[in-house]
Write a structure and sequence with these properties.
The chain starts with a helix and ends with a helix. It is an all-alpha fold. The chain is built from 15 helices and no strands.
């Protein structure tokens, strides 16, 4: 049942990708680029609502599975998030590199593990390789815009120049990302291969048509996050995924609202020192990094506990 739901979601996401891409190409990109301020705000709204909500059940998991007291959980979670932000402002390039590696593994695993029963050490490597497509696709199709985002994220000029000058590395890594998808296709003997095929085509189309920020937002909110929400909803109610989704919304809403408010407070504070577009990019990606590290650490601890 759950694979059928995943398959339906993948199909709908692919249709959404194709429709949005056709509209954008038909209008010459006027919809996306008509207002430089509206687009980042729309991306921010989607990430603060749909995107971060898929991690808003972390407190529920920590309490139910690991038996961690809620207050202790919030303190540890907040401390790790603050440490990530502090490290970013002092060691931006190193922190970004670590974040991209962790995010690649997270994207690769979360978007694939439901198709892959076994999880060997070799599989872990290919989760990382597969998920890296999210990072290298925008660098391949829109390197100048992507490097501009890196610059706003406080990455030093030497790193930016190296990435642009050594573009062949991006080409190789993009190819490896595609290879990561093919690995799981062949490993599962083409079972459910259409899900992986639609995933990779959607990601490549998104990054070809849209700017890096828009492409990432569509992927993160409507593929990665929705797929994770489906998983949680099924865990909450295996008899009815729709009822499970209602339970998820009810449980996740308070923490989602609280996190969104903290994002908006950061937006107001930082807008006094930086341009509004730059601030939005900073709080989206640095904010996601600060949430990703404790989120992945919790998932790791839960997996170890279950074993």
């Amino acid at each position: 049942m759950i694979k059928k739901i995943y398959g339906q979601h993948t199909f709908y996401f692919s249709v959404l990708t194709i429709v949005l891409s056709i509209i954008t190409l038909a209008t010459g990109g006027n919809i996306e680029f008509s207002n430089e301020l509206i687009v980042p705000f729309v991306c921010l709204f989607l990430i603060l609502s749909v995107g971060i909500s898929h991690g808003a059940m972390d407190n529920y998991k920590a309490n139910k599975i690991l038996k961690i007291n809620k207050i202790i959980f919030y303190l540890i979670y907040t401390l790790i998030s603050l440490l990530v932000i502090i490290f970013w402002f002092f060691f931006a390039s190193l922190t970004l590199l670590v974040f991209l590696l962790v995010a690649s593994y997270h994207f690769g695993r979360e978007d694939t593990s439901f198709l892959n029963i076994e999880n060997s050490n070799f599989d872990q490597l290919f989760y990382l390789i597969k998920g890296s497509l999210i990072i290298f696709a925008p660098l391949f199709f829109h390197i100048d815009e992507t490097l501009k985002i890196f610059e706003v994220l406080l990455i030093n000029d030497e790193v930016l120049f190296f990435i642009k000058d050594q573009h062949w590395i991006v080409n190789i890594c993009l190819g490896l990302g595609i290879l990561g998808y093919l690995y799981f296709v062949f490993k599962n003997r083409f079972k459910d291969f259409e899900i992986l095929l639609l995933d990779i085509l959607s990601i490549l189309i998104l990054n070809f048509v849209f700017s890096p920020l828009v492409a990432f937002t569509i992927y993160f909110c409507f593929l990665h996050s929705i797929r994770h929400i489906i998983s949680i909803s099924y865990e909450l109610n295996q008899n009815s995924c729709s009822d499970g989704a209602k339970m998820f919304i009810k449980k996740a809403l308070p923490l989602t609202i609280l996190t969104a408010l903290l994002y908006l407070l950061s937006l107001v504070y930082l807008s006094n020192s930086y341009g509004l577009n730059d601030v939005i990019i900073q709080i989206i990606f640095i904010g996601l990094a600060s949430l990703t590290f404790p989120h992945i650490l919790l998932e790791y601890l839960i997996e170890k506990n279950e074993k």
